[in-house]
Amino acid sequence: MRKKFITPRKFIKPSFSFLIEKKRDSGEYTKDEIRYISDSILDKELPDYQLAAMIMAIFFQGMSAMETAALAEEIMLSGDVIDLAKITKPKIDKYTTGGVGDKTSLVLAPLAASCGVVMPMMVGHDEDFIISNLSKLESIPGINTQLSLKDFIKQLKAVNCAITRQCDEIAPVDNILYKMRQKTAVIPSLPLITASVLSRKLAQGAEGLVIDVKWGNGSFIKDLEQAKQLARSVIRVGRSMKRRCVALVTDMNQPLGDTVGTALEIKETIDLLKGEGPEDLKEIVLKLGMEIVRLGGVAGSTLSAKQIVNRHLQNGKALEKFKEMVKAQGGDSSYIENPDKFPKAKFIKKLPAPKRGYVHTINAGMIARGVQLLSKDSKGNYDPAVGVSEICKVGAQVKQGEPLMMIHYNNEAKLDSALDYLRTAYRLAPKRPNPPQLVVERVA
Amino acid sequence: MRKKFITPRKFIKPSFSFLIEKKRDSGEYTKDEIRYISDSILDKELPDYQLAAMIMAIFFQGMSAMETAALAEEIMLSGDVIDLAKITKPKIDKYTTGGVGDKTSLVLAPLAASCGVVMPMMVGHDEDFIISNLSKLESIPGINTQLSLKDFIKQLKAVNCAITRQCDEIAPVDNILYKMRQKTAVIPSLPLITASVLSRKLAQGAEGLVIDVKWGNGSFIKDLEQAKQLARSVIRVGRSMKRRCVALVTDMNQPLGDTVGTALEIKETIDLLKGEGPEDLKEIVLKLGMEIVRLGGVAGSTLSAKQIVNRHLQNGKALEKFKEMVKAQGGDSSYIENPDKFPKAKFIKKLPAPKRGYVHTINAGMIARGVQLLSKDSKGNYDPAVGVSEICKVGAQVKQGEPLMMIHYNNEAKLDSALDYLRTAYRLAPKRPNPPQLVVERVA
Q1: What pTM did the predictor assign?
Q2: Is the minimum CB–CB distance between B57 and chain A shorter than 8 Å?
């Protein structure tokens, strides 16, 4: 599958320790060197320990936009690059750094497709405490979230959107690199994140890319400045690769929406696709949706973008497309028509407010961990009925004993440990806090 | 062989990726953590790639004196610690970072022993372009440079000095770490060098340590500031380990002495042991020798130290001790009595000065590489007859065509490539340069 290139004529292979030393001393890799590194990772010629030292040196010394673009390009070319040229519609993808309660991708793929923008959405690496959108989809009986490359392309042609696990043929070097980064504490490297995102998304056939960079206690990026830097890095490198890219830096200091859990979040997705649902999610779906239709050229102005997105949410086209997508992937779409079919938890219990006051801060990561504990079994499978709903958000006023959220669970034995997480997540204060700013910055 | 310790009561083993992250974010390891890391290296429980990432993070973030001392201690304790308590004389070791033409250790071991200071000298890692003192000794027929631990101790008791390859039983964690540092471009890490030197030297039974930190183009430390830092680091950490240590920072911007090569350097060693030989070597032997006898408590003042060292060079006692040591290690000591017995090269050719002038700079590293090319075969064995002699030093005045050095060689085919190195090593200038300062700094 891999694209083989002619080795550049005059490139003399340097030793790997020389290449590590070069980066250690803040040197800039040439395009040939980056190709050689990527090829050597793919061919398993670069020993693990030298790769580990190299990426740690990259963590400290960074990479220029040129280096990052070259790395993204080489990683992309390490596997199949999906050719969607036969689909004449614009092909825009969306990437998020991941957040608790974030179901916007599940909404945006059918929404964009209904607006005439193809969304080839492959879901990559799992973040440790965040429920993947694939796990959420898997609460729909029968659905296949592991399409083959052939079926993926077929579905894109027929339905214009698909959400599936990333195929092994896509950017295999990224898989190797990502696993190594996990084991060596090099996940938060700006150029390596940038190259990872761009390589995968562009290999998946996207012409343009809308990126949601989340910052806060429910993201792996805890720091706003770092989130802004990542957004700028992806945009700069994406441009130097001649792709249209827009990034929004958004808040992840509380769960998005009112639910966390697999089927509970699918139900919220359905609400959103009807133009309903909680305000924060509605706002972010609208903002990201507008970027997608504008990038795809379906709308010429901000105003028309807003009209198109709202129309497709109101007239049922987006929801219709979601059903179509679920059906195409083998899922039982009657669950979408009638969300009451989803299984319900044996127990539903409130998390009582320990005192009166305003919700001052919520640690979204803690809530995610609490939900994981209740809903994920030792094999990594989720109980679809389990999760939390009616989450009180930052700024809400509560009286002592009033519910901060409703906890849906089946396993009583785990409740106490989960409650520890959920309780710790809330801080109440006597004064109303400033409302969080949902979209902090737009980078284009 | 390894000393097993009781695991501290309340130490909960952290994950290795947590430990990498801690150092990445400039955290300070606790003593327990350092013991756990060292134990995990020894037990091969710390995977290569995580070790690589960890030492690269250490390269960038450094280690405190406390951490470095703890690491040195743990590495030392990872193997045998030689107990020389039965030898009542003071036991002082010498360590050099390595330099071209540096044969001072070969002089100092017998000199110190003749003055009443025991020198347990084990030679560790090879520097890539520098001829190891063991290779020089091996030009003496019959000599054994790989003593067993038992024979090493026996010889120290009988002769009071020995020069041998470091036994495998000594600081095994250091061997693993050093090999990893070589492959991952982490050799020049101040705390890791410091811990390596101290762990090995103290495991070899030394009570005190004299360190020669060389800086310049013939050392792996090219920068004077870095050399000073290393000297201070070793002294600081050595002290916190309650050992007597002195460091000299010395010049390595030209070869030491007039010869580079195995048997040629042994001949120069013999000259020095007679109180003769080139001035720079005489000076540094005297300076280091004085530190050794003072540290060993044999001399109370600088003046008496100088007198003792000079006396033992003049009265033949030091040379006698060298013969004794060679004999004890199975070598043919008649070569020491009559150095003319060493084989001579088939060809001896001058390196002519390309113009008149003063020797302005010499790249010692280039000379070392030229000599390596001529004298070392593909198996890594040296031809004892080969090398360079009568090296013109910085400040010397030459006329065009006069010899900058004499080249002794047996293999004509390699001469041209070697000449490339040797010629490039010299820069001549019309004005006399300032003489280099041999001992730049003393740290105690």
Answers
A1: 0.85
A2: yes
